[in-house]
Amino acid sequence: METIPAGVYKNQANEGPVKSVGGWVGIGSNMDMDATLVYNMTKAFWDNIAEIHRTAEWMKVITLKTALNEMNIPLHAGAYRYYKEVGVKIPDALIPPEAK
Questions:
Q1: Cα separation of 16 and 19, whole Å?
Q2: How far is CA 42 from CA 11, 30, 70, 75, in A?
Q3: Residue 81, CA distances (Å) to 12, 29, 54, 62, 100 in order
Q4: Which residues pair with 18 in a beta bridge?
Q5: pTM of the full predicted structure?
């Protein structure tokens, strides 16, 4: 369960916090996708995170610090390259086989 504070959204009817079902959102790719394309997609996402946060309040919990928290499969080589370049600590289980 997640808590949505009062006043988060325009015209929100509740005057106090509301319990809601929460979930994680992820972006996935096929391992056959071009590594440069996946790198560029990952970079574009993070380069625009301020705009994403501005337009989607609920996504403010998604940061480079929390990005890999719920991952349970290895990253694509392109995404791995991006996260490594920006200094994200990547758990061993998320390192793609081709990068080991």
A1: 10
A2: 33, 14, 17, 11
A3: 41, 15, 27, 19, 12
A4: 4
A5: 0.78
Which DSSP string corresponds to 34-85? Answer: -HHHHHHHHHHHHHTHHHHHHH-GGGGG--TTTTTTT--SPPPHHHHHHHHH
- Pair 95, 50: CB distance under 8 Å: no
- What does the domain layout of the chain look like in residue ranges? 29-99
Helix (H, G, I), strand (E, B) or coil at 97: helix
Distance CA 100, CA 95 (A): 7
Under 8 Å CB-to-CB from 36, ≥6 apart: which residues? Answer: 78
pLDDT per position as a tens digit, 53-97: 999 888 898 999 999 998 999 999 999 999 999 999 999 999 999
With a CB cutoff of 8 Å and minimum separation 6, the contacts of 15 are: 6
What's the first-to-final CA gap in the chain, in angstroms? 37
